[in-house]
Amino acid sequence: MILALVVGSISAGILVTKIGYYAPFMIVSSVLMSIGAGLLTTWQVNTGHSMWIGYQVIFGIGLGLGMQQASVAAQTVLKKADVAIGASLVMFFQQMGGAIALAITQNILDNKLVQGLRKVVGHSFDTSIVTNTGATQLRNHVPQNILPEVLIVYNSALTTAFRVAVAFACLSIIGAATIEWQSVKKEKHAMKKAEEEKRKSMEQQV
């Protein structure tokens, strides 16, 4: 997913420079993220490599395409005096959104795990063995006789937590669809023109 995110982010940066508009990439980002996150909720215990890798690639590319566009928009639309504040606010809300979403998904995952385990293996089983163990270490800490049931419960809790990502990805279309369409090339052209006028003015003074 991280590799796909990097590829998407670099590609978007190049294409925005070529095309001039960042808004289309924000819209495509919302669409791909929503699709990718939705596909992640379909995971099963026996889901194959091609599916769980492919779904992460879709989500990662979508995330990468839109990750930097809000900052680009702030630099393009806002006045020079407000760019620093705008870019800082974008970064602040990105970080805060991630922190809030992480807290929500962690609670959902833990609660679903505990509830599911109690239904399947009863109250006698120490649920902290699962909640405090990483997914890759489950087979080493959970008794083999209940491992299949635990894996099913873990998968169910995980895909339920992924629905938070689906919700946030779908909601991102509001900002993407309402963002102001302004070309970054116009801003560069205006800056170049201003520099030329300043240079001519200095030459005339000399």
Which key phrases capture this entry?
single chain; 206 residues; mainly alpha; Growth Hormone, Chain: A; elongated
Short description:
82% of the residues lie in helices and 0% in strands. The chain is mainly alpha-helical. The termini are far apart.
Radius of gyration: 24 Å
Could you name the CATH homologous superfamily? MFS general substrate transporter like domains
The CATH class assignment is Mainly Alpha
Gap from first CA to last CA? 57 Å
Oligomer category: single chain
* Overall spatial form: elongated
Instruction: Supply the helix-strand structural class.
Output: mainly alpha
Instruction: Show unreliable segments.
Output: none
Largest sheet: none
Mean pLDDT: 86
Return the string of H and E elements: HHHHHHHHH
Structural commentary:
It is a single chain. By secondary structure, the chain is mainly alpha-helical. Helices cover 82% and strands 0% of the residues. It has one domain (2-205): Growth Hormone, Chain: A, CATH 1.20.1250.20. It has helices at residues 2-19, 23-40, 49-67, 69-77, 80-121, 128-131, 138-141, 147-178, 184-205. The longest helix has 42 residues, at 80-121. The model has no long low-confidence stretch (mean pLDDT 86).
